[in-house]
Amino acid sequence: MQLIYEKSTPGRSGVKLPASDVPAAAALPVALLRKEPAGLPEISELDAVRHFTNLSRRNFSVDTNFYPLGSCTMKYNAKVLENSAALFAPFHPMTALLPGGEEFCQGTLGMLHELGSLLAEITGMDEVTTQPLAGAHGEMTGVLLISAYHAAKGNKAKKKYVVVPDSSHGTNPASAAIAGYEIITIPTASYGDMDLELFKKAMTDEVAAVMMTCPNTLGLFNPHIKEISDIAHSYDALMYYDGANLNAIMGKVKPGDVGFDVIHMNLHKTFGTPHGGGGPGAGPVGVKKELIPFLPSPRIVKSDNGKLSLQNNNKGSIGRTANFFGNFGVMAKAYAYIIMLGKEGLIQVSEQAVLNANYIKARLKDWYDLPYDMTCMHECVFSASKQAAKGVHAIDIAKFLIDKGYHPPTVYFPLIVKEAIMIEPTETESKGVMDAFIEVMIEAAKQAESDPESFAAMPVTMPVTRLDETKAAREQNVCCAD
Amino acid sequence: MQLIYEKSTPGRSGVKLPASDVPAAAALPVALLRKEPAGLPEISELDAVRHFTNLSRRNFSVDTNFYPLGSCTMKYNAKVLENSAALFAPFHPMTALLPGGEEFCQGTLGMLHELGSLLAEITGMDEVTTQPLAGAHGEMTGVLLISAYHAAKGNKAKKKYVVVPDSSHGTNPASAAIAGYEIITIPTASYGDMDLELFKKAMTDEVAAVMMTCPNTLGLFNPHIKEISDIAHSYDALMYYDGANLNAIMGKVKPGDVGFDVIHMNLHKTFGTPHGGGGPGAGPVGVKKELIPFLPSPRIVKSDNGKLSLQNNNKGSIGRTANFFGNFGVMAKAYAYIIMLGKEGLIQVSEQAVLNANYIKARLKDWYDLPYDMTCMHECVFSASKQAAKGVHAIDIAKFLIDKGYHPPTVYFPLIVKEAIMIEPTETESKGVMDAFIEVMIEAAKQAESDPESFAAMPVTMPVTRLDETKAAREQNVCCAD
Amino acid sequence: MSYCPNTEKEQQEMLSAIGVSSVEGLFAAIPAALRAKHFDLPQGMSEFETFDRMKAVAGKNSSDTLNFIGGGFYDHIIPAAVDHLSGRAEFYTAYTPYQPECSQGTLQALFEYQTAICRLTGLDVSNASLYDGATACAESAMMALRVTGRNRILVDACVSPFSREVLKTYLFNLDVEIVEIPQADGALDRAGLARLLDDTVAGVLVQNPNFFGTVEDFTSLAAEVHAKGALLIASVYPVSLGMLKSPGEMGVDIAIGDGQSLGNPLSFGGPSFGFIAAKKKLIRNMPGRIVGETVDRNGKRGFVLTLQAREQHIKRHKATSNICSNQGLCALRGLIFLSTVGKEGLKDMASLNRDKSEYAKSRLTSIPGVKLLQSGPTFNEFTISLPQSSQPVVSALLKKGIAAGVPAGEYYNGLENALIVTVTEKRSKSEIDRLAQAVQEVLQCN
Amino acid sequence: MSYCPNTEKEQQEMLSAIGVSSVEGLFAAIPAALRAKHFDLPQGMSEFETFDRMKAVAGKNSSDTLNFIGGGFYDHIIPAAVDHLSGRAEFYTAYTPYQPECSQGTLQALFEYQTAICRLTGLDVSNASLYDGATACAESAMMALRVTGRNRILVDACVSPFSREVLKTYLFNLDVEIVEIPQADGALDRAGLARLLDDTVAGVLVQNPNFFGTVEDFTSLAAEVHAKGALLIASVYPVSLGMLKSPGEMGVDIAIGDGQSLGNPLSFGGPSFGFIAAKKKLIRNMPGRIVGETVDRNGKRGFVLTLQAREQHIKRHKATSNICSNQGLCALRGLIFLSTVGKEGLKDMASLNRDKSEYAKSRLTSIPGVKLLQSGPTFNEFTISLPQSSQPVVSALLKKGIAAGVPAGEYYNGLENALIVTVTEKRSKSEIDRLAQAVQEVLQCN
Ligand SMILES: Cc1ncc(COP(=O)(O)O)c(C=O)c1O
Ligand SMILES: Cc1ncc(COP(=O)(O)O)c(C=O)c1O
To answer: Nearest CA to C335 among D5, B477, B5?
Structure first.
């Protein structure tokens, strides 16, 4: 397909603007003006509509394909959530920051406050800030909170390290690094969890925090989690919970109850908001009491008479982490999701997510290597090592699936599993859909035996075949020349 | 793709209903109840979303493909029109019919009234009813009005015939037949218009109406149109204008000025409302003064103080032609379209529609036979007779185009042109799009010379190849067995 | 804004390819004397101003009226997915699927729609939609005339007055006699009908639930009608078919109705869609488009428009109907509605409607002087008799923001005190209580 | 409603395939002592009730305030096509395009987005979006630190206070000194900056138009900054780039900003997107995802995520940023906005903004006692000085339904009387007149 710039014709125009009803202003000095208008598309509205409609048709998506992308929780995004968020389109965030402005924003401030309370109850935390804009942003916010906590105790200089298991998501160490910490990585033991002995050895007074997700990225719930957090606390290290995998445990166990002090949630995973082809998400952060003083400002507080207001002058606050109040539109969807599903609905979400993952695991384990063969939570991680021995790698199986109309699972993550194939069906998929997927996975395994060479050419049903990534990285052609 | 019924699983359910807040009623007598619930789909909301999203992807459409389907005016449907119509979703039509109810519907009644005035000005008519639901419905309404006119003059028995040219759309005679008339068909002369001499011979006092479209379905404007209407009027036959081709002449000539007494408009053609895969459209009917007393009831009238009200007791009215006030949502879009484009915009529409059609005609006439080679209006009609001689028929060229990503022009209509290929680009297509289409049409012509056999297998890029229409008609499998 | 994309330069290039010097030259065939003398339309505006204007128009209707009115259009829930899916551009910006290979989306959806209508009505064949419920009445009557070759239609006066009016309009010039059977306490006068039923009758048209909301069983009627060689036509309210005996089960020959209640917004009366279903043997007399299943050259299932020889574009004045554009997108909405609400869902929805309506019935009929008109059962609509004319009551309640019902007296002589009240699943108990309260107050004041 | 589709029967079948007897059995790894003791959430409800609740929430905000506030988010027109196209399910329900063959839609769109950002800013490379304008400031500063290996950042106090706050939050634990240059009459104090600029400085951060609305030319500044081996970072307002000299033309090294004004609704502050563009040589230090052009095995053009070795999922704590999910869909909206408004359109839109703003400026500064704060030119935002504290004036006007501007005193000591007023193309002359009238009235009353 042509680029939209290649469809331009000089002088063609799209949307018409309102005519001016005021006098034209005197021109600005030339030094302040650009020489040429920016080389934006010159196309009609129909050209734009056709271009983007046809572009969209070149994507797989949840609404068109089963999308069992591990760690991403690609559940169905209910359409009523989209409609709900649209209700808030006209509200300017600055209104709330004007003197007397909160009065005019009681709906939006109230929703954020209530969402915080709901998330706190779900995770067992004492207060939630809705400011962070995605999971990684929440992580950074969370680690900064931990750092502020240590600083307030006079331990800023002493606390130098953040401990993460080697199965952790890359954002965990990356976020901790921005927050100024060095990283200690703990290997995973044969039982699929962070090696407890090595962890114990690594712990010292210099550790500021331990960042974990539980279930971890292998989909396993760590039964020693309380012991780990007790150990951490004994060194005055705080426990950070990466909430990306919260979809597995709602109503079953609360991070706050097992010793976690800080948590971020990926509303775009657990709470049914769409992923948008990469974003936006939202990454609210929940904390235990001790950390409340450090939360980002402004904080939304509710007075006894139910009025919401903004508190800007939190003394110990780590400050602002984003422009305004976070990705409000995303939170509106998550809020609608939570009140719609309610208590029983959310428990069912986790139960069915876990049931679905275990079903796929059970059905495929005769065909694919299962490095950690225990009951999984919401996702299961296979290895294509058997197939790789024949020359068919995880990526080849992924391309096979594309040709069959399935979005591939996550491959090559977590990094600790060779040839990883990480499958997360989510609770919104039915047995029928999974059975069809399982058949195709089995077909792939058989074909890897019988005809391993055939994989190299795949996929053949897409607008492009496999792409030359090296060329892309070498040429760095990231912008179309004007 | 599976049928949605084939995706059902007993017990699966989709959207949840609100819980009841009232006591359960006593059951109805068994004789009034159905034995089994209707065999509707039992699927999840996600199943439904995926099913219909994927189904939609099996269509060509204006938003994805150039769609030069002659006589259908497949112009771009501006997105703001969709948003505009949605504003009126909550209004119950019965409200306006309650005693005192008009007061609560001044917006919707006012819009219908103003739309009527705008359409009257565009077409040169004195009043417009917005009740008819599509073009053919407008035709029937229009002919009934004509019949009421004759009846009021005591000529009901005498007036037996409606005259139509053989190039007319099938709905014209079909609508006249419902209105109780017999049809006289006039052949087209070599100059592309209704044969004037034969027309004169056919005219008698028994003719109730002459139904024409101008430009006609060959895309030609009849320069004798005034003469024709004068002749018709001399027999007290009224002139009916099929407004399907109005897109060619806005601001240039008004049907009312050239002697037409009744007109229907296809809002879904000229006024930018989408075709919906077959409907809904809207077919308002405009009339000259003499016919106003017969208009369908209720009529929307505006008093001197600007208040709108409904007039139900029109003595001579032909009565109600549809449930309420017509396809209101479609009219909201057409109204928005007209006020958005305005006077200059609508003139430009017709000019550019005609320019585009003539451009395609000029560029293709060396390749395809042009049975009536004169300046066309908004569409041009070729014949694939040259190609047919090689065994490549209009339908084969259509399938060739499908494989190239173009929706085919209308083929085999008008019936008077053998192997007709009727191309209507509309004004919203750019030269670039048309040039690409022209190249592909030329390629088809060349390939018809060089490799006529190759066409039989086309199309090959679609979910299905050519379908067995005979089998469909024979088996009459129009409903999936339960 | 004209949405005309070509630049001045392109227009020049096109003109020279054509060989004329100006666009005006292309209009030379229109004699000067016939040219438009004025074209008094307003100046155009941007889409933003347009949308503001449309909001202003909508703002002139009152939007917070509490609805207890039906009369053919019903305020039902519409799952959010209906808008999203029918809003797929490939559905709504396509034309009638005349080229089947590139229209399988629309064609399969319409086949599924036809199936849903057949299953709901308990009949064998359905078309791909008609304009609305009222015109469907007319089409079904014309079908009966064609099938039987007779020329009398009997119509129960309990059929919607709008449908009956449209029927009369359609048949006015056709040599047909339409005979109305006056209503009896809001139900079909069976004895009255029996007196008129003979072998000159082409069809008998009834409605269930009828305009007063009364639910009837037409099984025995069907037998009587068939005994005279006539067809029984029933107009039905599709949501009620979640619960009520289907036309097919009653022996009805042709079922019709308005599909608005299936996922189409009220939208001041349209667009909605008409549906028509019939026994298999009537298929060649059906009006409008029909989608049929077939196979492609590789034996793969596919769908096409079929039996087109019935239609105007082939048969011209001999066609079964003049209909061309139908209400396809609304029918698609109906299908999506039925698919998302689902088999059990429609049943539950029907129960919810009846429960709410029965609650309202008990609340309203406990107001002194208010009685129920019909003796038979009802679905979600019922008719009460007030101690005074219902018209001023309705208009007084409207001013209080409640559309309390449809005054039957507007459509039936002798029923000036009657009020037809509709209660859908969208009305809450407290809203119903508010209605009862308000009716009582207004009655006390008058 | 849980949107969990499996029936009881299917669940049983799945459990037996797994070999456990109950779903609870799957949670056996969670020790009993750790189980949730309460889960006090409300009962669920249907989507219809949910939507009603959401409408009630939105209804508690006042929706008819006339907006003259900006401060980083701007009330611009959004072509209807933006919602329709970004609302295509294939765009919004997809994940990050890690599998390029089945994600060419998103990938090509992001490549086109990157191109639009490069062309707008006059720079060579862009990423595929950051969270917002404020976090983009922080990312750009971290980029300067990495590139130069130095540890001081100079920041003009005229940069949005929110951006400066976020910058401080991000850099708090990194061994970095952030030095603010106090504003001078709403513009950069160039002498003040020159005094601080030396070869310990990694980057200088400015904004154009700045928080007061002042428009500046940073061309000479860029030369000065480069002379010290530092990078010049400019935060820009994309709509203004329809008119104003681009960062590239000024010699800026990194341009950043918030993309809300490009087709994203105000939505109480988000989601919007941050953009970042830079000179080509800085590409390996860019944060976030980048889409690059390449070819497939048949030599056909295609797009992939590229230079992933910069990113956290490969480099972990050594990554250029921790960002993973970005704001892709908002960036897509930005691209669609720029494509439908187009080259000339953005220019015209910029003019319209300035014309309206200049009109408002002249109206407001003709009120006795009201003066303009800045001496330099402005775009669509300007700062006036009132004869009294602006805070009570703003709150009095809010009660009259007008958000008249942002009181600068909330963010700058000594500017208690200053009011920053924003006027976009959406404000009509009569609305501006209403503002001027209302300001005059309030000033007279106080
Ligand atoms: C386990 C885990 N942690 C953290 C993240 C980061 O979340 P986000 O992409 O919202 O920044 C992800 C996202 O993929 C994840 O899977
Ligand atoms: C020339 C002409 N007349 C009449 C009609 C009938 O209009 P409708 O489909 O709206 O009933 C059409 C539609 O195709 C047409 O092209």
So the answer is: B5
